[in-house]
Amino acid sequence: MTISVLDRTDGTAEAPSLGQLHDQAGQVDDELLPCRANNPELWFAESPADVEHAKVLCQGCPVQALCLDGALERREPWGVWGGELFLQGVVIPRKRPRGRPRKNEAAA
């Protein structure tokens, strides 16, 4: 299911709110949404381990597909959306740690 972008009166588009996601997915209790039940900072964390944890939490979310579709449509600049990590509007496989990469990848 894809999320439709709402047309505003001035002809521009607006991203759907969480309430509109609920309307499209049926009535969903906020406690069932991992991004509402846990610390929201986790979905925008600097630590690769925290980002992976957020991605795992999204796997059981009842609005995961709607969240991902909406993030793709809006080209979210960063964060975990629908179980996927976004950077500069595109999905990337994993977050790289800060600092210089190791010379020998096998040591990582």
UniProtKB/TrEMBL annotation:
Pfam families cross-referenced by the UniProt entry: Whib
Show the segment(s) annotated as Disordered: 1-23
Modifications made to the protein after synthesis? The Fe-S cluster can be nitrosylated by nitric oxide (NO).
Cofactor annotation remark: Binds 1 [4Fe-4S] cluster per subunit. Following nitrosylation of the [4Fe-4S] cluster binds 1 [4Fe-8(NO)] cluster per subunit.
Transcription regulation is among the record's keywords: yes
Task: State where it is primarily located.
Answer: cytoplasm
Residues the record lists as binding [4Fe-4S] cluster: C35, C58, C61, C67
- What keywords would UniProt list here? 4Fe-4S, Cytoplasm, Disulfide bond, DNA-binding, Iron, Iron-sulfur, Metal-binding, Transcription, Transcription regulation
InterPro entries named in the record: 4FE4S_WBL, Whib
Cofactor dependence: [4Fe-4S] cluster
Boundaries of every 4Fe-4S Wbl-type domain copy: 34-91
**Compartment(s) of residence:** Cytoplasm
State the similarity comment.
Belongs to the WhiB family.
Record's function text? Acts as a transcriptional regulator. Probably redox-responsive. The apo- but not holo-form probably binds DNA.
Q: What is this protein called?
A: Transcriptional regulator WhiB
Q: Which organism is it from?
A: Nocardioides koreensis
Instruction: Tell me the classification of the organism that encodes this protein.
Output: Bacteria, Bacillati, Actinomycetota, Actinomycetes, Propionibacteriales
